[in-house]
Automatic annotation (TrEMBL):
GO terms for cellular component: plasma membrane. This is ABC transmembrane type-1 domain-containing protein. Keywords: Cell membrane, Membrane, Transmembrane, Transmembrane helix, Transport. PANTHER family: D,D-DIPEPTIDE TRANSPORT SYSTEM PERMEASE PROTEIN DDPC-RELATED, OLIGOPEPTIDE TRANSPORT SYSTEM PERMEASE PROTEIN APPC. Residues 60-249 form the ABC transmembrane type-1 domain. SUPFAM superfamilies: MetI-like. Its main location: membrane.
Length: 263
């Protein structure tokens, strides 16, 4: 599918950009706003003569790294909490629901802006902050998936054979929820990339001169009427990446959703 091709190509470029014959993201390769198909700038240059293509690929590395690591951290921590809460219920379930409601009531953008005002923003700061904010969402998602599994025959059979809670949770229930929570994780990764782009656009994200798609849009927005490519190229990269991630998430959910497949 085209979504996988785009994500694979972008990830490969982002991972190997320093090995490719492209200039560094902060190198001036020509006059400001050179047109596309220039020798050192296939997508043209920005307001100070840096390669838009190079900066877009370095921006992809920052966005993909941020989205992937934050989503994985939140998935692991939230998944474990949701697994325990869904199996044992009681106080743990109440705490997970309460934390989810509190976090959802507090806008992530406002939290990141307040955090940036208190400490110097960086990729690591954004990643850890958003991972923590996303933990309750994963916990709630995992709890629901576990509740859907606990009444099924294979769980009852494991209990009848004398299996303990740990074995039932990690050997019986967890494997049957992995695809559901993985598809949710990909969707969350897309959301995180949008949040990072929005925060960087406002000037509270990844600090310059390190590129991010939102930062590139902010740097060139005043020239939108005369130099639309400098603004639209990072927007297109962002749109295609988020669209591809959401498409992949939808495909995984429809193909592997435990609720649709009898295991």
């Amino acid at each position: 599918m085209l979504a996988v091709v785009w994500l694979a190509a972008l990830t490969l470029l982002a991972a190997t950009v320093e090995l490719l014959p492209v200039p560094a993201y902060d190198s001036i390769v020509g006059a400001p706003f050179q047109p596309m198909l220039s020798p050192d700038a296939p997508l043209g240059t920005d307001a100070i003569g840096r390669s838009i293509f190079s900066r877009a690929i370095y921006g992809a590395r920052a966005s993909l790294t941020f989205g992937f690591i934050a989503a994985v951290i939140a998935l692991v921590l939230g998944g474990l909490l949701g697994l325990v809460a869904g199996y044992f219920r009681g106080v743990m379930e109440t705490l997970v629901d309460l934390c989810s409601e509190v976090v959802q009531a507090f806008p992530a953008m406002l939290f990141l802006v307040a955090l940036a005002a208190a400490i110097r923003p960086s990729l690591a700061t954004l990643t850890i902050s958003m991972a923590v904010l996303m933990v309750p969402a994963f916990a709630r998602m995992m709890k629901g998936a576990v509740l859907a599994q606990t009444g099924r025959e294979f769980v009852s059979a494991a209990r009848a054979q004398g299996a303990g809670p740990l074995r039932i949770m990690f050997r019986e229930i967890l494997p049957n929820t992995l695809m559901s929570i993985a598809s949710f994780g990909i969707m969350v990764m897309a959301t995180l990339i949008v949040i990072e782009g929005s925060v960087s656009f406002l000037g509270y994200g990844i600090p310059a001169p390190q590129p991010s798609w939102g930062g590139m849009v902010a740097e060139s927005q005043s020239q939108l009427a005369t130099q639309p490519a400098a603004v639209m190229i990072p927007i297109v990269f962002l749109f295609l990446t988020v669209f591809a991630l959401n498409t992949l998430s939808d495909w995984m959910r429809s193909r592997f959703d435990v609720g649709q497949n009898q295991i």
